[in-house]
């Protein structure tokens, strides 16, 4: 660290400088708050009414995608109702104007014009050529620029290539144009030497469609290949390249790519690279200190652009949703304090770096000035950065001081620029917005310049509340320690492959089935594990042994049984990465899919344990005097659980734990394709306290399952699998055998033919990613997977093109590799079945894309077909593989009709920004689980209880409060408490 003082500047000096800056900016107002503009009225309304603000920003977001004037009128009416005319200044109201084609056109044109005018406040031009006059005008006004190319989210490698090419074109055009700009010394030299006239801010996420912190090496290879041509041109011009910082999950990845790339011989001496760092992140000081050490060793300066951060809301929400510790400061004042501390840190190291301070906050500007002054720095040792279209008064103030100012200047089309525009509007209307406080609420200067005050900590609202269920968080693979833990788990399990797993049955029961070997679908000749199978003739002995233990287990208190499940959950947490690794080897699940399956298994254990504590207490019915009515739940008896291989831990954990915690004894038959995972489940439950024999493992094929179903002593059958097998179980269970004393209850989840509707208002960036995720996740081997995409004709062709490019970009390979998105089918039979459906698709529809792969194992590349009709087999039959049928819809009503035209009713999805269409889907899309504007797989226990109807299944939803009662009988006991004329006091 520099030997100069590190104490903060005095508050007196900060106040003096702030007052001077305020005087220099007086008489001006930010464009966005200009009362002569329509945007001023609109933003004032948004600041006063939070509900209106949400509707406004959502309408602004969808508007550019609307191609038809009547559509604009309809959406405006949906979002704003009768207020739309007043909001957009339509004298006769939109409803009256929409009555005619001309009126609708005029109304829509007026609305578009006003929103586009607002967008142009923040966007310099739709192309670099259109923006060049604006950039030159900024330069002559002594304001440099950093160009940011707006664009649609990168969902494919072709789109990543197009972004790279746009960046190269922009650098070239800026290089040609900037030569003729006048000399502006304050912008062309700093304390370390000359500065280029050109600066381009790049988004790493736009340079690789598969960017994912789970695979740092793959990300570096792909991003580096596209960044090197940019850096080569930047070195030659010269130009400055700045890495924008994005969502917090990618922060460490972006830092790693930056330092690795700039450490290469070709770029080690390049002095004009930089990156943005966000003060709202708690780790930013650590990151800066690491960068300073790296820069010192590298021997060439870098730019560090310090910003408060633009993704606080979305990052916070995502981390809270996932149950991860939020890595951002909770209060804005904490961010402001951190910004000041980091400002001092950067200025103290100005001999190594080019500090740049992005802020529109008067206090922050004054703090930078005061801190630099206290350190004795020259005025050209740092620069300010502000956003195009924002805080123009402060821009004027700092340039009048002779300071270097750079304007972050977006360039791009309105449609992809809408996300950027909404962020700017959120900033301007936020309760914490400095510009709002000064220019709208007219806060006193003394308060605006006061040091940040962090609110005192409040007591956690959860303290003192009853224990509640919280989902087990999925692993945060952006953390190096988590990736290392998964690698270690894979290494440990790999050493155990091929071992034997002994039978887990009741004492005294011996099995006579053949030895079975479980094989790795990624390497079909590799044995995962060996186990002893049960023969159908072994079933009676297993059943008798279980029933001998029934009375003792049912007498175990619900509290004790719930504790066993919670202990099992704790054991699974301890063994999390080993269990996930076993799934990778035995069932071919990619990293995230395997990890999520273990987390879901833990969720089932914790959720059902809590549910049993609730249900295990007698429930009082009625409050009339003189009688006592209690409802009680008791176990049904023997449960047979028949589980699938595609969720080899979560689904059987749910079925088995539900039966056990409700007091039943269980014979569990895992799929013959995943017996090792079945073994681990039974082992963990035994270690958690399930007595030997109360839960028995029966490994075998269909004949064993049939024998279990046919046993007359069985009271409950819990099944997850195909429709055909499920219906046979229902039919056989309905047959009463001699000696049978109870009607068998069947709980069956039997698959789906799930559709996602994409309407004409959909955000295609989200829709493409969501559909790809939903139909290729775990190779499409999920009952919840998307197999039909029903797309409105207005966006059909664009959607299909972008979807095909996205599928072309998927990483296919061995799931041991963290970057693999698509792995193998479970076995040769599944692979061959999918190939047969691909052949059917080629006859029925138009092949859009088929990924051809040459991988060891049972890999089938994803295939997409268009022009599929409702009666085609691809539209009706469950495929259980990465095959997608695309159907064209003329209207939203047509799309709903097509979606419901299936024998199944499991999951469905909708991508739409139309409030009316969303409401219609909620009422009319006939599925058990409907997902809106998100992928349709990945239901979470307790939050999205899972299950369907029609031929998708019978029984209550798994992971919901109705599930456990299916494994129990309900008894009601009514006692007359009136004796000799009196009753006990209540």
List the helices and strands and how they pair.
Elements: H1 11-25, H2 38-48, H3 50-62, H4 69-80, H5 84-88, H6 94-97, H7 101-120, H8 128-140, E1 144-149, H9 157-178, H10 185-188, E2 189-190, E3 193-194, E4 199-202, H11 216-236, E5 240-243, H12 251-262, E6 273-278, H13 284-298, E7 302-307, H14 312-322, H15 332-348, E8 353-358, H16 362-374, E9 383-387, H17 392-400, E10 405-411, H18 414-429, H19 434-439, H20 445-448, H21 480-496, E11 499-501, E12 515-520, E13 523-532, H22 539-548, H23 550-555, H24 558-574, H25 576-587, H26 591-615, E14 619-620, E15 627-635, E16 638-642, H27 650-661, E17 665-669, H28 675-688, E18 695-697, H29 702-710, E19 714-720, H30 723-733, E20 745-749, E21 754-758, H31 764-776, E22 786-792, H32 796-808, H33 828-844, E23 846-850, E24 863-866, H34 873-876, E25 883-889, H35 892-900, E26 904-905, E27 907-911, H36 915-924, E28 929-932, E29 949-950, E30 953-954, E31 968-976
Parallel strand pairs: 1-4, 1-10, 4-5, 5-6, 6-7, 7-8, 8-9, 9-10, 11-13, 16-17, 16-19, 17-18, 19-20, 21-22, 21-27, 22-25, 24-25, 27-28
Antiparallel strand pairs: 2-3, 12-13, 14-15, 15-31, 20-30, 23-24, 26-29
Task: Using the alpha-carbon principal axes, give the shape.
Answer: elongated
In which order are the strands of the major sheet placed? 1-4-5-6-7-8-9-10
The overall strand count is: 31
Rounded radius of gyration (Å): 32 Å
Distance between the termini: 74 Å
Number of helical runs? Answer: 36
Structural class given helices, strands, pairing?
Answer: alpha/beta
Strand-residue fraction? 15-25%
The helical percent reads 40-55%
For the largest beta-sheet, the strand count, sense and barrel status come to:
8 strands, parallel, barrel
Overall mean confidence score, pLDDT: 91
- Give unreliable regions as ranges: 1-5, 96-100, 459-465
């Amino acid at each position: 660290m520099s030997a100069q003082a590190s104490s903060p500047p005095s508050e007196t000096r900060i106040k003096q400088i702030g007052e001077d800056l305020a005087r220099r900016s007086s008489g001006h107002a930010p464009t966005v708050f200009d009362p002569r503009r329509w945007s001023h009225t609109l933003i004032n309304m948004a600041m006063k009414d939070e509900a209106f603000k949400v509707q406004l920003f959502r309408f602004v977001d969808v508007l550019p995608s609307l191609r038809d004037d009547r559509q604009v009128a309809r959406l405006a009416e949906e979002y704003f109702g009768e207020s739309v005319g007043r909001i957009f200044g339509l004298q006769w109201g939109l409803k009256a104007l929409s009555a005619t084609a001309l009126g609708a056109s005029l109304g829509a044109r007026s609305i578009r014009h006003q929103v586009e005018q607002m967008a142009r406040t923040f966007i310099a031009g739709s192309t670099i050529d259109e923006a060049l006059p604006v950039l030159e005008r900024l330069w002559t006004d002594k304001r440099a620029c950093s160009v940011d190319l707006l664009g649609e989210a990168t969902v494919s490698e072709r789109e990543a290539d197009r972004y790279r090419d746009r960046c190269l074109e922009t650098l070239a055009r800026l290089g040609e144009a900037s030569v003729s700009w006048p000399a502006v010394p304050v912008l062309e030299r700093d304390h370390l030497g000359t500065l280029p006239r050109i600066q381009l801010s790049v988004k790493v996420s736009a340079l690789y469609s598969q960017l994912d912190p789970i695979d740092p090496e793959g990300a570096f290879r792909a991003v580096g290949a596209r960044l090197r041509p940019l850096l080569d041109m930047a070195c030659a011009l010269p130009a400055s390249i700045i890495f924008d910082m994005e969502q917090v999950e990618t922060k460490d990845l972006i830092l790693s790519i930056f330092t690795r790339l700039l450490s290469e011989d070709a770029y080690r001496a390049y002095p004009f690279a930089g990156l943005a760092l966000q003060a709202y992140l708690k780790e930013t000081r650590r990151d800066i200190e690491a960068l300073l050490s790296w820069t010192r060793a590298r021997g060439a300066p870098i730019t560090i652009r310090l910003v408060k951060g633009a993704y606080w809301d979305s990052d916070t929400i995502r981390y809270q949703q996932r149950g991860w510790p939020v890595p951002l400061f909770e209060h804005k004042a904490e961010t402001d304090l951190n910004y000041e501390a980091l400002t001092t840190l950067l200025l103290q190291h100005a001999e190594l770096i080019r500090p740049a301070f992005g802020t529109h906050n008067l206090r922050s500007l004054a703090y930078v000035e005061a801190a630099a002054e206290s350190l004795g720095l020259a005025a050209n040792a740092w620069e300010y950065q502000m956003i195009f279209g924002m805080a123009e008064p402060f821009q004027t103030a700092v340039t009048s001081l002779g300071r270097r100012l750079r304007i972050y200047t977006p360039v791009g089309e309105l449609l992809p620029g809408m996300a950027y525009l909404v962020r700017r509007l959120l900033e301007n209307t936020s309760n914490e917005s400095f510009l709002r406080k000064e220019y709208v609420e007219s806060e006193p200067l003394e308060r605006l310049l006061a040091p940040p005050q962090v609110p005192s900590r409040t007591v956690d609202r959860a303290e003192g509340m009853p224990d509640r269920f919280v989902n087990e968080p999925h692993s945060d693979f952006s953390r190096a320690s988590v990736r290392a833990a998964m690698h270690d788990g894979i290494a440990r399990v790999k050493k155990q492959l091929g071992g034997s797993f002994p039978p887990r049955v009741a004492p005294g029961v011996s099995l006579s089935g053949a030895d079975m070997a479980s094989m790795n679908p990624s390497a079909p000749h590799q044995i995962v594990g060996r186990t002893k199978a049960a023969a159908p003739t072994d079933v009676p002995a297993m059943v008798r042994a279980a029933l001998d233990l029934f009375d003792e287990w049912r007498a175990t208190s619900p509290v004790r049984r719930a504790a066993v499940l919670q202990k099992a959950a704790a054991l699974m947490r301890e063994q999390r990465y080993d269990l996930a690794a076993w799934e990778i080897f035995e069932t071919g699940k990619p990293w995230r899919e395997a990890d999520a399956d273990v987390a879901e298994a833990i969720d089932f254990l914790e959720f059902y344990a809590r549910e049993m504590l609730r249900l295990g207490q007698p429930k009082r019915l009625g409050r009339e005097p003189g009688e006592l009515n209690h409802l009680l739940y008791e176990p049904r008896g023997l449960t047979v659980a028949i589980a699938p291989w595609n969720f080899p831990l979560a689904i059987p954990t749910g079925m088995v734990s539900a039966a056990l915690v409700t007091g039943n004894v269980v014979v569990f038959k895992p799929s013959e394709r995943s017996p090792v995972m079945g073994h681990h489940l039974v082992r963990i439950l035994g270690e958690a306290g399930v007595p030997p024999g109360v839960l028995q493992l029966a490994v075998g094929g269909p004949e064993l399952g049939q024998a279990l179903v046919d046993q007359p002593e069985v009271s409950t059958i819990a099944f997850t699998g195909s429709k055909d097998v499920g219906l046979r179980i229902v039919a056989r269970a309905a047959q009463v055998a001699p000696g049978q004393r109870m009607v068998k209850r069947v709980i069956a989840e039997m698959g789906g033919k799930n559709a996602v509707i994409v309407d004409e208002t959909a955000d295609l960036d989200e829709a493409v990613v969501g559909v790809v995720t939903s139909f290729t996740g775990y190779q499409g081997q999920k009952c919840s997977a998307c197999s039909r995409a029903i797309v409105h004709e207005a966006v059909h062709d664009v959607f299909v093109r972008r979807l095909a490019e996205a599928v072309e970009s998927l990483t296919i390979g061995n799931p041991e590799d963290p970057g693999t998105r698509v792995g193998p089918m479970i076995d040769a039979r599944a692979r061959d079945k999918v190939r047969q459906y691909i052949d059917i698709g080629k006859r029925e529809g138009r092949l859009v894309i088929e990924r051809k792969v040459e991988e060891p194992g049972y890999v089938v590349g994803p295939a997409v077909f268009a022009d599929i009709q409702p009666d085609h087999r691809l539209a009706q039959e469950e495929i259980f593989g990465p095959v997608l049928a695309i159907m064209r819809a003329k209207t939203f009503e047509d799309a709903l009709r097509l979606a419901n035209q299936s024998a199944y009713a499991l999951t469905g999805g909708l991508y739409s920004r139309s409030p009316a269409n969303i409401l219609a889907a909620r009422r009319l899309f006939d599925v058990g689980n409907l997902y809106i504007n998100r992928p349709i797989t990945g239901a979470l226990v307790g939050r999205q209880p899972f299950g369907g109807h029609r031929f998708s299944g019978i029984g209550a939803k798994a992971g919901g409060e109705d599930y456990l009662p299916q494994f129990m009988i309900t008894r009601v006991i009514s006692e007359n408490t009136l004796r000799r004329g009196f009753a006990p006091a209540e």
